[in-house]
Amino acid sequence: MKNNIKVWRAKKDITQEELAKKVGVTRQTINAIERGKYDPSLELAFSLSRFFDCKIEDIFTYELK
Amino acid sequence: MFYMRIDMKTQEIASFIIGIFLVMAGIYIQIFKPAWVSEAQGAGGGLIGGGVVLTLLTLKTYRTRKSGEIREDERDYRIAEKASFRTFQIIFILQGFLLGILGILNIQLPAQPVVGALFAVTGFSYMGFFYWYRSKM
After folding, report:
1. Where would a tag sit more exposed on chain A, N or C end, judged by fewer CB atoms within 10 A?
2. Which chain B residues have a beta carbon less than 8 Å from that of A21?
3. What is the pTM of this model?
């Protein structure tokens, strides 16, 4: 699954650490999500979309393999 | 009346008490050297060391939780789940293989070294898979 969290973070001018604190995860998790190494749970995906005030599809793109 | 509220979770309280108990058991064995303990020095030292580590880890966990710092999250739990599953597979296959070989060849092995070896394999296997999955995820 692809995502553009880095872009959304830049729009809000927020670091990975700050974003991680806001959504209740570690900085390493945010880093892993941005690098595409880890797919978040539904709950975390909703937390992120709520924080950025957008839809989940605006952040994450699911590509069929 | 003096009242102090200690905001500890049940698991933290249990871990703390077990740690203290282990230390006291170790001290008892070191001092009194009971006949039912084969190696009082080693057993006592191990219990004291284990108890101290457990107590300190519990206090550290409590302090981290109170500070609000997030140390473990869903990613860590998912990594732990994957590592646990792979470790279970390896240990299950290994034990099945051992059972088969020992049964076929009618070999009698002493229990303690075998249990110790399985314990070590379980620990190293889990640690290895944990760090491997953490690097992949």
Report:
1. C
2. 70
3. 0.74
